[in-house]
Design a protein that fits this description.
heterodimer; A: mainly alpha; flat; B: mainly alpha
Chain lengths: 63, 135
C-alpha cells in the first residue's frame, strides 16, 4: 500500500480524492451506468475546477 | 450486473435495514452486499476503503475517543464512520501519524472524508433494507 499511496503528490492526492468521492456520489444519487458515468465525470471536473480556482484566489495571500 | 432482479428478491423490513446499516458501517459496502446490490457494494468498498487507506498511508492523524476539543470530537465522529479501517488504523499505519507535514494533514482529511462518505452509504443501506426505493 505504501508503494501505491506513499508517493502521492499533493495534486495526485487531489485527483484521487476527487475521483473516489465523485464515483461514490454517482452511485448514491444516480441510477444506470450512463447516468453514473456522466455524473462521475461532471463532479470530478467540478472538484478540479473549484480546487484550482480557490488555489489561484489564495495565491496573492501567500506572498 | 442486474440489480433489478435482486430488488424483487430482497423484501425490506426494519430489522433488515438496521442489520444492513450496522454491517455497512463495520465494513464499507457490506450492507449493500447483504442486500444484493453487488455493484454498489464493490464501488463503496473500493472507494471508501481506498480513501481510508490513502489517508492512513499518507500518515494522517486519527482522532481518539477522549478528545476535549469540539473540533477533535467532530474529527473522532468522522473517523469512526470508516468502521473497520478506524479500528485497524494503528495496524495499517505502523509508522504513526505525521501531521507536521502537509501530506500528513491531507491524510487526516482523506480519512475523515472516508468516514463521512461511509455514513452516507450506511443511510442508503438502511433505506434500502427497510424497503425504501433507493437509486
Amino acid at each position: 500500500m505504501n508503494a501505491l499511496f506513499g508517493s502521492l503528490t499533493h495534486f495526485g492526492a487531489l485527483l484521487f480524492f476527487a475521483l473516489v468521492v465523485s464515483a461514490t456520489f454517482a452511485f448514491l444519487s444516480k441510477r444506470g451506468i450512463t447516468e453514473r458515468v456522466k455524473y462521475t465525470l461532471w463532479a470530478f471536473l467540478a472538484f478540479l475546477l473549484v480546487a484550482i480556482g480557490i488555489g489561484w484566489l489564495m495565491y496573492p495571500f501567500s506572498q | 450486473m442486474d440489480e433489478t432482479m435482486s430488488k424483487v428478491a430482497v423484501k425490506g423490513n426494519q430489522m433488515l435495514g438496521i442489520g444492513a446499516a450496522i454491517a455497512g458501517w463495520v465494513v464499507p459496502g457490506l450492507g449493500h452486499l447483504l442486500l444484493r446490490r453487488w455493484s454498489k457494494a464493490a464501488v463503496y468498498f473500493l472507494c471508501i476503503g481506498g480513501l481510508a487507506c490513502a489517508g492512513l498511508t499518507m500518515r494522517g492523524g486519527v482522532f481518539g475517543a477522549g478528545a476535549e476539543d469540539l473540533f477533535d470530537r467532530l474529527g473522532f465522529f468522522a473517523d469512526l464512520g470508516a468502521g473497520v479501517f478506524y479500528f485497524l488504523a494503528h495496524q495499517i499505519q505502523a509508522a504513526g501519524p505525521d501531521v507536521a507535514h502537509a501530506t500528513g494533514d491531507y491524510g487526516t482529511r482523506l480519512f475523515a472524508a472516508a468516514g463521512m462518505l461511509n455514513f452516507l452509504t450506511v443511510l442508503e443501506a438502511y433505506d434500502i433494507g427497510r424497503g425504501g426505493e433507493a437509486k
